[in-house]
Design goal:
Layout: E1 8-17, E2 22-32, E3 35-41, E4 52-55, E5 59-63, E6 65-70, H1 88-104, E7 107-112, H2 119-128, E8 136-139, H3 171-183, E9 188-192, H4 211-223, E10 227-232, H5 235-244, E11 248-251, H6 257-266, E12 269-271, H7 276-287, H8 291-314, E13 317-319, H9 334-341, H10 346-352, H11 355-360, E14 378-382, E15 397-400, E16 403-407
The chain binds arginine.
């Protein structure tokens, strides 16, 4: 060929084929520029002699991990009133650090579902321009929400006139916010469909936005080719959002049988952050989480885990979503062990964070598996995560876009 780029070859004892749910032994992956050109059993794969070969031995290769619910601009040690002290430039810089920590933990793609001032757009662009190191980012900009709801900021009294940027009431107002977010670079739309744990004065179980508003929001986003993620803990909010056609529901803590049926019927993804409860209850008070929020978490956490098991059993489409930012970025992978503890097989947990996530993002032609023609986003881990899923908390090799960005193996 006329190309001078050197071919990169990864050799490892194992490769996880997430599309077929299979483990391939004695594997080889061939990468040219940013693309996988061949992957599979060593005896079936050929490559040129002057390739750069990385021998990984007792390693398992798998697709780059994908977290569908992060907030890179959020600092897990600053919650509640502590968060009011940081400016937009300050949280953007925090995001730079968190982007790198996320990538080094093996998460080569994230969906950032809410950030102030389009700081997430700036991070994405800086990463894509090569100025800073971080994952591929799909970004929401400011989350949409009702006045006084979970996506508003209710910490200060009336005379401060504090209103979050994404607050909009009424079908046309939410359409306008969707258009504005797209104008400034959002590639996904996030809205709050119920109260939340960490917001002051909201009830987790109570719906926010009417069906009419959700429908308008979803219609506008879909018309423009964007998917919609909905924060919803409460049963009515979950079901109304699914009926309105959202692509994923986040948290989904208080789902019921009908919510599961609706999700199956509409093909809605669930993104259930079942690790974060441990951090909130152990570190939250120190970090500034309000007592009323801790009280809400004590109710929601275990129910969410039990309902996760139910949803998995029923066959709802699941993606990996951690809510990192509430807990430290880079610890995203701690959720894997909980996903297995609460009902998934290790293969299902890995699929949730790879091929399922790619499909939710409508990137399944480009991302989500180690297969010919896809972007070379690949991670490696010592040992076999299908035997011990917690190995994914210690990723030894990270390749993004064909570039080795981390390697403890060599
Ligand atoms: N951002 C979410 C909220 O404030 C966090 C919920 C965390 N708790 C949980 N059990 N998943 O509602």
């Amino acid at each position: 060929t006329l190309s001078f780029a050197q071919t990169l070859v990864l050799k490892a004892d194992r490769l996880i084929d997430v599309e077929n749910g299979k483990l391939i032994s004695n594997a080889v992956v061939v990468i040219e520029d940013d693309t996988i050109v061949a992957a599979g059993e060593a005896r079936k794969v050929t490559f040129s002699k002057d390739s750069k070969i990385i021998e990984l031995g007792d390693y398992t290769l798998l697709p780059g991990l994908m977290d569908m619910h992060v907030h890179l601009t959020s600092d897990a040690t600053k919650h509640g009133y502590k968060r009011l002290a940081d400016s937009l430039p300050r949280v953007t810089l925090t995001g730079v650090k968190h982007a790198e920590a996320t990538l080094m933990a093996g998460f080569t793609t994230v969906r950032n579902v809410g950030a102030p001032g389009f700081a997430d757009v700036a991070l994405r662009d800086a990463i894509n321009d090569g100025d800073i190191t971080g994952p591929r980012m799909f970004v929401a900009g400011p989350s949409l929400g009702v006045t006084g709801g979970h996506c508003d900021n209710n910490l200060l009294p009336y005379e401060y006139h504090t209103v979050s940027e994404g607050v909009a009431d009424g079908p046309w107002a939410v359409r306008e916010k969707v258009r504005r977010n797209i104008k400034y670079g959002a590639t996904v739309i996030k809205f709050c469909g119920t109260g939340g744990v960490l917001s002051k004065g909201t009830k987790v179980g109570v719906q926010q936005y009417t069906f009419e508003e959700m429908q308008a929001l979803v219609d506008e986003a879909h018309m423009r080719g964007l998917t919609v993620a909905t924060h919803a803990h409460g049963t009515d909010g979950i079901k109304t959002a699914i009926k309105a056609g959202v692509d994923s529901v986040e948290h989904v803590s208080l789902l019921d049988d009908e919510a599961i049926k609706l999700a199956l019927k509409h093909g809605t993804y669930f993104s259930m952050d079942i690790y974060v409860t441990e951090y909130i209850l152990s570190e939250g008070a120190k970090a500034g989480i309000l007592e009323e929020s801790l009280a809400k978490e004590r109710i929601v956490g275990q129910r969410q885990r039990d309902n996760f098991a139910k949803a998995v059993k029923a066959g709802v489409k699941m993606v990996f979503g951690s809510d990192a930012g509430v807990y430290p970025h880079g610890d995203n992978g701690k959720q894997f062990a909980r996903m297995v503890k609460f009902g998934m097989t290790p293969m299902q947990a890995i699929q949730a964070s790879t091929i399922n996530a790619a499909t939710l993002l409508k990137q399944q032609e480009v991302l989500g598996s180690v297969s010919e023609g896809k972007k070379a986003d690949i991670v490696g881990v010592k040992g076999n995560p299908l035997d011990d899923i917690s190995l994914l908390e210690n990723i030894g090799l990270v390749v993004k876009d064909g570039q080795v960005v981390k390697s403890l193996a060599m």
